[in-house]
Specification:
The protein is of the alpha/beta class. The protein has 14 helices and 17 strands. It has a domain at 53-80 and 118-234 and 293-483: Alkaline Phosphatase, subunit A (3-Layer(aba) Sandwich), CATH 3.40.720. Strands 1, 4, 5, 6, 7, 8, 11, 12 and 15 form a nine-stranded mixed β-sheet that branches. A two-stranded antiparallel sheet has the order 2-3. β13 and β14 (436-438) form a beta hairpin.
Amino acid sequence: MSWDPTLQNHLTRRELLGRAGTGLGTAALAWLLQRDGVLSAEDSRYGLPDLPHFAPKAKNVIYLFQNGAPTHVDLFDYKPELANRHGQAVPNEFVDGKRFSTMTGKANGKLLLGAVEPFHQRGGSGAWVSNFLPYTASMADDLCFIKGMHTDAVNHAPAISLLLSGAQLPGRPTLGAWLSYGLGSESESLPKFVVMTSVSKGTSCGQIFYDFYWGSGFLPSRYQGVKFRGSGQPVLYLEDPDGIDRSIRRTQLDDLAALNSLKLKEFGDPEIETRISQYEMAFRMQSSVPELTDFSQESASTLERYGRDVTQPGTFAYNCLMARRLVERGVRCVQLMHAGWDQHNSLTTELYNQCRDTDQASTALVQDLKARGLLDDTLVVWGGEFGRTPFLQGDLNNRPRWGRDHHPYAFTIWMAGGGVKPGFSYGQTDEFGMNVVDEKVHVHDLQATLLHLLGIDHEKLTYRFQGRYYRLTDVHGSVVTPVLA
């Protein structure tokens, strides 16, 4: 072929090898295809051939992510001493040298704030749960609480990115993308990784849902989460245009796949393979999504269990029922993201709304999975990106405007099903809920544990990018074995 030296600075490596077309180019292209896992669209559904690494406890994950950071000291981490010293200055030794958000700045002299609502021990396990969450309290014996969580970031987006992708800066694959890449899916007609978002009505502390919260990073983009919309059609452009029936659409896609396959053979670009597979998935979703979103076959008792908002698309309750229906149909990872927990000055008002909007539906999801025999191999995770400060943000004399700032040094999550111990609490904070003092769990440890429950050694699930191997846990993380059933 003729060679234009001006192209040298514009060609990618793949284009160079694709144009070479002789021995070296062909050999290198074959290696690239093998390295990047460029297989047929149908084969890519099954994940990597050497996974799982060992027998999994769970097959699916439903992550109930609470954007904005729920307050651990008002919901799960009972601290009577915090109530006893309500209104007193936080002791310096608890905050010296610690970094808080710019809204707090230096925490010395801040006033301690006792829990807004009373706590009680629940069930046979005696887990402490606040009156804010009566439904969650009723299933305490099904839950595994991790009260020793801590993280590195003090602001929302970096902390969410760290928890979901292993890095504070965007650009790494998220948990669902890693699972899609490693394990594939049991569904032929739905995506491997589905995301849905919701916000409490009338909230003043919503969070932005950035696409990188469910991104595939440097993995091929077919592994990124598919976001279902909260109004109108869950997925846009699934309907055929007027005058186009299924047989015509099938012929069009076959011809388009043939053209794309020629380009794939020529250049070996994984994004071409993604294009082929996503067109095929969209074709299958034309029939699977309407059936998925049709709740008419759900019993009245099931709908009642999830609450009055369950039939309203875009609500947390609706998304929870959708999550159960998705894992029933073989979807590997479902990530529900609910915003509104960022109560800097609305602890005594909007925290009640958040709990009302999420408590019943979260509980219904776990109970529904359990009743249908799905909880044993479905791991449900509930929690946010960090906690809230045990000290007050605002004026102690102005109760309607009480708030708590971001707190990375201690927070609580809970898990259910999927191989974790029910009725179990792990980790302990100090007398104010300020710092973890026993059984610390970093977000990388949580990631390692989630992967372990799905049969994955977190140190072995890697992907080579720009000269090094990456993994979800970066170079950190240990499995929290005491929480394993």
